[in-house]
Specification:
The chain has about 190 residues and is mainly beta. The chain has two helices and 14 strands. It has helices at about 115-120, 165-170, and strands at about 1-5, 10-15, 25, 35-40, 45-50, 55-60, 70, 80-85, 90-95, 100-105, 125-130, 135-140, 150-155, 160-165. It has a four-stranded antiparallel beta sheet with strand order 4-5-6-7, with no helix packed on it. A four-stranded antiparallel beta sheet has the order 8-9-10-11, with no helix packed on it. The protein has a three-stranded antiparallel beta sheet with strand order 1-2-3, with no helix packed on it. The chain is globular, with a radius of gyration of 16 Å. Residues about 175-185 have low confidence and may be disordered.
Length: about 190
């Protein structure tokens, strides 16, 4: 029975559908820039993500909205326009940005140790970056029938449908209840 709204005021407002006169809970200054996108995790009712003009994606637990659970940063170099959780795995999230890229994140890898060489490619939770667009990527959508396929659209009216190579997503990924390489399961975000 909860709704969430975000906007240019950098606030997250959590609404109870039974009383929409004022927000049930508000997070002021949730990001350093406008918040352009918000999405509840379809497999975990307590987790939501936000995408912002501050170039980051925030992961939040609605039971403790006072601070982010995690910030996905140092990958996008411009505004994050859209975020969407994968329908097939509660730990997988996609974000698209004005930097012409789509990033795929695996939250089960948060905190995983990296070699200095791997760290140069981004944080451990960064699974993949699709850099095939030549203009700002304004929207994306997971294919509900083909788990690792995504459609992305850019502001130059180019629409791409792409699938990550199995070698990328199969390394260290198990089922939703299987322990990951770093000992965390997606449900441990709660």
């Amino acid at each position: 029975n909860l709704l969430v709204s975000v906007g240019g005021d950098r606030r997250i407002c959590l609404w109870d559908k039974s009383n929409t006169k004022k927000p049930h809970f508000t997070v002021n200054d949730a990001h350093l820039g406008d918040i352009n996108s918000v999405a509840f995790n379809p497999r975990n009712e307590y987790v939501l993500a936000t995408g912002s003009s501050d170039k980051t994606v925030g992961v939040w637990d609605v039971r403790r909205l006072n601070s982010k659970v995690h910030s996905l940063d140092n990958v996008h170099t411009d505004d994050v326009f859209t975020i969407q959780w994968a329908p097939h795995d509660e730990a997988i999230l996609a974000s698209c940005s004005a930097d012409r890229r789509v990033a795929i994140w695996d939250l089960s890898r948060v905190g995983q140790e990296q070699t200095p060489e791997d760290a140069q490619d981004g944080p451990p939770e960064l699974l993949f970056v699709h850099g095939g667009h030549t203009s700002k990527v304004s929207d994306l959508c997971w294919n509900p029938s083909n788990p690792w396929s995504i459609a992305s659209a850019s502001e130059d009216n180019i629409f791409q449908i792409w699938t990550m190579a199995e070698e990328i997503y199969s390394a260290g990924l198990g089922g939703p209840n299987e322990e990951k390489e770093n000992g965390l399961r997606p449900d441990e975000l709660e």
